[in-house]
Structure formats: structure tokens, C-alpha cells
Amino acid sequence: MSRPRTIDQSQILDAAEAVVARDGAARLTLDAVAIAAGISKASVIYDYKSKQALIRAVIERRVSEEQEKLRLATEKLGTGTDVHLRARINVISDNARDLPEAVAFNLLSAMAQDADLRSLMNDTYRAELEAILESSTNKRAAIVAFLALEGVRCLEVLGFVRWPDDKRAEIMRDIEGLISEKIPVRPPRDLSPVPVKN
């Protein structure tokens, strides 16, 4: 009697991303993912009971990968002022355009229709902003730099804007320069974003 085949979760999630890129999140089916992964539909259903659960797993994996990159970059930098923001700049500088546009558009579309997915992203960004603000001496400059960095990344991921590598590196240096610029330090106030209602 042969042993049951072990299914690699990343194989299923890679297949799901490929189906999302090809067909869109709205047309993603467990059948299509099973075919793309070369496994049975029952194997997909065993781990992901629904299309929504599978899309959530794809997004959670992307978030987890990003958080691990940020953790390693922060660890590499050690301690100091703006360490979390500098780590984020390094990660985004090194990992330009790592999410195909079709996948990005379709995952954003899925998030727009799912309050739980939006809540996951709200929590993720809130925690990241708290870490950035905690290690910053000039919270205003840190917020401006964070917004500039995320704006660049968003425009690139969605394919709206592309810069040649040398210009992009310059932009990243300029964003990092925002941290040390003399943006006026005003009296302490809460710069945390307000909760987003889904």
C-alpha cells in the first residue's frame, strides 16, 4: 500500500496566484486551482474549504512574506532611530515589482468585497505604523516618508508608473532623506490613523 501524497501548501497557493493572474479573483475556482497545481480538487478542499478561504490564504502568505522580510531587514540594521522605516525602505528598494500586476489588481478587488480581508490589511498596516512611530524621533517626518514610500510601491505594483532602476534608487534615497530633513517637530500629538470601518 502506498503512502498518501503530501501536498505542499505553497504549491496550492502558487497555483491560486496563477489562476488569479490568468482568470481574475472573481473567476477563481477550486477546480481551476487543483488543475493548475496538478492535484485533486479534494486535496484543495481539504485545506481550503472555500474560494474565500483560498484567497485569504494567498493574501496572508504575501503579508507573512513581507513581514519576514521586514523582520530580517530590521534585525540587520540593529537598533536606532527610524530603524523600522529604514528597514521598510530597504525591503521595498530590494524587492521592486515582485507582485505581478494582474495578481495585485485581482487581490485588491477581492479585498474590496471582503470585510475580513480589509480588516487583515488594516491590522497589518496599523501594527507597522505603530512600530515605525515608536522608533522615530520625528514622527511627522516618519509618516510623510512612509506615505511617500507606500505611494511609490502602490503605483508600481498596479503598473501605473515605472521608473528606470537608477531613477528609482534616487527616489528611495530621497524618501530616506525625508527622515533626516528638518520637517518641523511640532508638539506631540497622536499621528496614528483612525480605524477604518469595513
Automatic annotation (TrEMBL):
It comes from the Bacteria. The keyword DNA-binding applies. InterPro entries: Homeodomain-like_sf, HTH-type_TetR-like_transc_reg, HTH_TetR, TetR_CgmR_C. Residues 29-48 bind DNA. Keywords: DNA-binding. The keyword Translocase does not apply. Residues 6-66 form the HTH tetR-type domain. This is TetR/AcrR family transcriptional regulator.
